[in-house]
Amino acid sequence: MTALRLILVLTMALFAALPAAAQDAARLDLGASSLTAQGPDRGHPRPMQLRLTLDRAVPYRVFLLDGPPRLVIDLKDVDFDQTRPEQLFGADLVPAIRWGRFQRGWSRIVTELPGPYAVTQSGLSTRAMQPVLTVALKPVQPEDFRPRASASTASRTLPEPATVTATPDDPAMPKDAQADRLIVALDPGHGGIDPGALAGGESEARIVLDFAHAAREALERAGIGVFVTREEDRFMGLEARMTAARAAGADLFISLHADALPAGQAAGATIYLWDPTANNAASRLLAQRHDRDDLLAGLDLTGTDDALAGVLMDIARTETQPRSENFAKFLASRMALAGIDMHSRPVQGARFSVLKSPDIPSVLLELGFLTDPVDRAHLTDPAWRSQMVGALVAAIGGWSRDEGARAALLRQ
C-alpha cells in the first residue's frame, strides 16, 4: 500500500468515526416552529410555508410523494421523541402530520397535503440564533404535480449516492490502452434548485452544462475518457460531486463556472486552485456563492474537520497540489495561445470546497463572468465556446503527456 493510499485510508477512518461521538442528536424547537397558509380560507388549497427551528444545523432532504400527495422531509440526527406533531402551530391546516425515526441516524416528517403542491423554496438558514429550515409550497394543477416515482425510492440510505455511469470503452482501443486512458471529470457547477448566477436572461447552471457537453464530445474524439458529474439540470451537493468523480476513477477534476461579481470586480476567464489562505474580496465572494450549494442541501460542514485529519489531508495534498498547479499553467498557456480573454491574474487561489480533494488534481475554471457584458456575449457565443473547448482539450493533452514523462523519470 502506497503512503498516499495509507494516508487516505486513515483519514477516511477518522471521518467515519468522528461524527457519531462528536455530538448528540439535534432537537426541534416546537414553540418556534410553524405551518402557515397565505390568504383567506375559501375552501381551496392555499400557498403554505413550513418552518422548523432546530438547535443546530443538520443535513436534510425534501421531496414529494403521491397517493395521497405528501411532503416528506428527512433530517439527519434529529430527535423527535419529546414532541408530538399535533402540537405544531398550524398542524390543522393539513389532513395529517407524522414524524419519527425511520432509519438509523435519520428521522422523517410526512405531511399529507390538501391537494397537489410544488415546492417553491427549501433552505436552511443559519443566520439567526437557531438554524431554521423553511419549505415553501404552492398549489398546482394535477398535471403539474411532480412527485417521486415511488415511495421505495425515498427509502434509500441518505444522502442519496451520486449516479455514476462507467466511461464507455472504445472498441477500437486495445484493452490495456483503455485501462491506462486518462479520465477527466467535468463538473458543471450549480443546477436544479440553485441556478447559480443570473444575468441577461441566462443562467450559470445552463451555460456550464452546455459547455461540459461540448467539451466531452471534443475530449472523447481526442481519445480521452470523460465523466460529467451532472448530465441534466439537477441539484448535486459539493461532496457528492467529488465522490462521483472518485468513483469514476477520475485522474483530473475540473469544476466549471460562469459566476457573478459586482461590476468592475472581475472579467475574463480565471483558473482557481485550492488555497485555504486566500483572502481577497473577490475570492471570498465567490467562495460564498459556490459553497452555498451545500447550505441549500442542508449540509453545514463548518467545524467538521478534525485537526489530525486535516493534517493528514494536507500531507496527501503535497503530491496532488503541484500537479493541479501544473495543469493550471498548461490551461492558462493554451487559452492565451487561443486568444481567450483572461483575467489580469489568470491563475489564482481560493477556498472553494470543491477543490479540497487530496487525491485528485483539481481546478475550478471560471469561463467568464455573467455580470460582465463582454463575458456574457462570449459565454453565449457557440464560436467562442468552440474556441475555449479547443484550448481545454489542448491543455489536458499537454498536461497528460507531461504527467507521463514525469512518471517515467520517477521510475528510473
From TrEMBL:
GO terms for biological process: peptidoglycan catabolic process. It holds the Pfam family AMIN. InterPro entries: AMIN_dom, MurNAc-LAA_cat, N-acetylmuramoyl_amidase_3. It catalyses: Hydrolyzes the link between N-acetylmuramoyl residues and L-amino acid residues in certain cell-wall glycopeptides. The keyword 4Fe-4S does not apply. Coiled coil: none annotated. Keywords: Hydrolase, Signal. One of its GO terms (cellular component) is outer membrane-bounded periplasmic space. The keyword Disulfide bond does not apply. GO terms for molecular function: N-acetylmuramoyl-L-alanine amidase activity. Residues 144-173 are annotated as: Disordered. It is an enzyme of class 3 (hydrolase). Residues 242-397 form the MurNAc-LAA domain. Its EC number is 3.5.1.28. Residues 1-22 form the signal peptide. PANTHER family: N-ACETYLMURAMOYL-L-ALANINE AMIDASE (PTHR30404), N-ACETYLMURAMOYL-L-ALANINE AMIDASE AMIC (PTHR30404:SF0). This is N-acetylmuramoyl-L-alanine amidase.
